[in-house]
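Recall the central idea of this unit: under ordinary conditions, the amino acid sequence of a chain determines the structure it adopts. In this exercise we apply that idea directly, starting from the sequence alone.
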Amino acid sequence: MSSEQLQSIKRTKRNQLILILALIIGLSVWSALGTNFSLPALWGGFGDGASFLFVDLMPPDLSGLPDLIGPALDTIYMSFVAMFIGSIIAGGLSIFAAATTSPHPVLQVALRAFSAMFRNIPVIIWTILLVASFGLGNLVGTLSLLIVSIGMLVRCFAESLEEIDMGQVEALRAAGAGYWQVIGQAVLPQFLPSFIGWSLYNLEINVRASTIVGMVGGGGLGFAIQSGIKLFQYKDVSMAVILVLVIVLATEMLTNSIRRRII
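Accordingly, the structure predicted from this sequence is:
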């Protein structure tokens, strides 16, 4: 390749880089104008935000802690039930959604589409839809988390199944093993660590999401936070927010510890 050709390639790449940067800057400016975002407006609201954070919210009202224990337990219950049932359902469906274990491509595509629909609709939308059918409460929160958990875990489990060592699978097939014998003896032993790891990660996500679910009628601490905001009881709200933070951090520490010991 001649030096002129090299120079031409460098100029083309430089022009492409400039074009991409200009496009990103243009989209950022356009988006900022569309949302009325500006540094002066941000600075203007800083004082009110700091006053709300450090005067209205702080210090948290510790006397309200006993009343928040029940909602906190509801948050944990909803997250765990959604993780447990969601993992079992998703584990079964993922066998038919993975290219390495699905008995038919049509079934694989259909299940992938099914899980994508569940996963891509935000949990807050599921909660609003379910509130219309089941009313307010923990059941709605649990169902919302369960639906999104199934959508997420089917994809994660299926991708894990597609990464297993196919040598064992082919060896059993060559020996005349049936479909379920192959699944039980070659696939599941390799799949189990991923199953546990993704399920624990889903529990962490559910604990965080349960707060949002609760704020639109799904129960738990999110509902307590929303009720406190409506009644202008901001110090109770800050106590509930601290409790959410404690639960999230405790869940992360617990699941990380389990993952290190088991996987």
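The mean pLDDT is 84.
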